Amino acid sequence: MNRSASRGLFRTSLALFGAAVASTALTTAASAAVPAAASHDAHAGARAAAEHGCAVVWFDLGETLVHTAEDSSTGYMPGAAAYLRELRERNIDVGLITNVPSSWGETDAERAAALKKEVDGTWKGSVPFAWEDFGDRILTPRAEAERKPAPALWERAKGDANGCRLVYEAETADETDVAASLGYVAYQVGQPSRPAYLPVRVIERLAHDS
């Protein structure tokens, strides 16, 4: 999909978000993600999603949830800890799609462990980063060619969606454009005159409309 079409999908997502804020009812043209694999577990997950609704909110990490200060220390972006807590309280799954050097490990788990060590080693603040909320949903490049904004990481997340609606939140339009082009409801954080993050009530409505 070309960049113009991608931006069109992104603008559509924002327009739908605006309608939800005004009326607390959101409808969206983005289709629910369907896993490529046809395994029994995947079908069972898709059926559960259809019956009860679900959503997974994927985030970039740096300058979306975590800020790096001039002294190289890290800490939560304003409002990020409370937002993750609200998602956790509403039983909405979250994940990270973030660039790290592919040399940090052979697997996502190894690279995630290196990422945690890197962030925790420079962390400042009384509340630690909520790694436990993300479980094994931390996707990182297996090769430098997979680094965002290449679509590989979003495609991997979409392949494991089991019918859940997918949301992606990041600070850069380059990334939200790609996510929108792949069927995610994409939200650029940190924009003036808008909530810092996509409101949880909107995500709940997306889940039930999936």
From TrEMBL:
<keyword id="KW-0732">Signal</keyword>
<feature type="signal peptide">
    <location>
        <begin position="1"/>
        <end position="32"/>
    </location>
</feature>
<protein>
    <recommendedName>
        <fullName>HAD family hydrolase</fullName>
    </recommendedName>
</protein>
<dbReference type="InterPro" id="IPR036412">
    <property type="entry name" value="HAD-like_sf"/>
</dbReference>
<dbReference type="InterPro" id="IPR023214">
    <property type="entry name" value="HAD_sf"/>
</dbReference>
